[in-house]
Amino acid sequence: MNTRPPLETTSLPLVLSIAFNDDCSCFAVGLNTGFRIFSSETCTQTTAREFNAGIGLVQMMGKANYLGIVGGGRKPKFAANKLILWDEGKSKSALDISALTPVRGAQLSKERIVVVLQNSVRVYKFAKPPSFITAYETANNPLGLCRMSPRIIAFPGRTVGQVQVVEIATSNVSIIPAHSSAIRALQLSPDGELIATASETGTLIRVFSTRTCTKLAELRRGIDPAAIFSLAFNPSGTMLACTSDKSTLHVFDMPKAKRLGGQNEDGVPETASDQGKWGILSKIPLMPRFVKDTYSFATHAFEAGDEPSGANQLLSESSTLGTMRLPKGVIGWLDDASLLVVGAGTDARWEKFIIKEEGAGKRSLAKAGWKRYLADY
User: Fold this and answer.
1) In the predicted model, is pLDDT for residue 65 greater than 50?
2) Looking at residue 265, what is its pLDDT?
3) What is the predicted pLDDT for the residue at 182?
4) What does the alpha-carbon distance between residue 116 and residue 45 come to, in Å, rounded to a whole number?
5) What backbone phi and psi angles, to 5 degrees, belong to 136?
6) Is the C-alpha dihedral spanning 41, 45, 46, 48 positive or negative?
7) Residue 260: pLDDT above 80?
């Protein structure tokens, strides 16, 4: 006899996607009924758009009224192969871009619209109608990985484990051989000078210069494999945060921050986190690599949230998310000392963490607030 309680798909509020705007002052969530926008600092709802149909992706364009949205869920509002530029000020679609395959991601600026597909990235001029500029082939990219700054666009390369960095002004393409397995996460620093990447193995995070493609840092999240959920630099680019399916938030120092004067074996300047995990053991020859690696200076558990059995199956086969998993652990920095971790699903949560000075140069993470943000509306 089947004793599992039925999943009420018609009444279950479900967050399908999460995206912060460029300065993380607010975040947008796609729901199985529409989309909403929240103030990051207080998790206060500022905008609600009800369609009585699913939105699988919402991408903000700074603080402008324009949003990029794509249908999703079991009852999508729009076709999965169409990116809608929604004008919230006029409460209507301003323009749209259709593709031959489902849209996996999007990036918006006042000059460019970037549409991410499973195996390509297409760039358009922001105009009415949008003017196609160029396209780039990529390896399989079901998560729609792509980031854009005023200077560059970064996304997976044609070869597994590589990253392509495109100079917007010149269209020059640089290739970074970041990992030996598929890219799982990538993020640009706020100034676009650094790019952080993680593979599907999830043990190491690598940081490169976007101008020279030089590896600047190799950071160890842990020894056991994990699925990296999110990477995010703080506003000054001196720290990098990471979340994974281990339900742990990590914060690392960047090489240029808090220099101690030494260099590791790769010629990278040492930071407090270089010398703090294993101490003198890291200097002993022939020790295992993980002892010598750079670890986070602070960690804290975050709530991934409990989902009812079958919640992930509320995503359609052609889900914009590209996987049958709901996004968790999405990071946004409020300032250089505080950050948010936001999760999707039916148990959608907003959590705030702060970096505390402990004395003697040590720092820790502390939870400063949390909210089941869907339950309040």
Assistant:
1) yes
2) 42
3) 98
4) 28
5) -130, 135
6) positive
7) no
Model pLDDT, residue 304: 84
Reference 146, options 183, 95, 199, 200; nearest CA is 183
Give residues with Cβ within 8 angstroms of 351, minimum separation 6.
302, 303, 340, 341, 342, 367, 369, 370
273 membership: H or E segment, kind and range: helix 272-276
For residue 272, give the H/E element and its range: helix 272-276
* Residue 337 near residue 368 (C-beta atoms within 8 A): no
Tokens linked to 185: 């996460």
Burial of 235 (0-12, 13-18, 19+ CB in 10 A): middle
Main-chain dihedrals φ then ψ at residue 22, nearest 5 degrees: -65, -30
One-letter identity of residue 98: S
**In 3-state terms, what secondary structure has residue 34?**
strand
Give the whole-angstrom CA distance, residue 183 versus residue 161: 5
140-169 per-position pLDDT tens digit? 999 999 999 999 999 999 999 999 999 999
**Confidence check: pLDDT of 319 > 80:** no
DSSP labels, 351-371? EEEEEEEEETTEEEEEEEEEE
The stretch 178-196 carries a mean pLDDT of 97
Give the span between the Cα atoms of 325 and 311, in whole angstroms. Answer: 9
How far apart CA 69 and CA 84 sit, in angstroms, is: 5
Give the residues across from 300 on adjacent strands: 249
- Report the pLDDT value the prediction gives residue 56, as an integer from 0 to 100: 96
- Amino acid symbol at 256: K
Instruction: Name the pLDDT band for 9 (thresholds 50, 70, 90).
Output: very low
| Nearest residue to 273 via CA among 245, 289, 293 | 293
